[in-house]
């Protein structure tokens, strides 16, 4: 008997995604997304000022805190709870929309990206 169920150790057996290390690939995708989110958050401070947003110390503090949290979570994605915390981070960013509307827009955008990352994770890891 030949084919994928023959148990011969052929290519792709045990790895339906075809990736050498699917867990590492998924972690890299999640970490890259969170690092990109960090950069966007930190770079958003100046455009918020230009758009006429009231940038108080609290608003800047919230933006920096969310960015730091994203960096920390990007390093912890090998733990299962960190993926849930990443989802919560997107919710926190949307709640930051009460400080400035553009933070809500960023929150929705990154929530959609994070939903796609979770979909890819589920598809690859099962």
UniProtKB/TrEMBL annotation:
Pfam families: DUF4233. It comes from the Bacteria. Residues 1-21 are annotated as: Disordered. Residues 1-15 have a biased composition (Gly residues). The keyword Iron-sulfur does not apply. The chain crosses the membrane at residues 25-45, 57-77, 97-118. Keywords: Membrane, Transmembrane, Transmembrane helix. This is DUF4233 domain-containing protein. It comes from Micromonospora echinofusca.
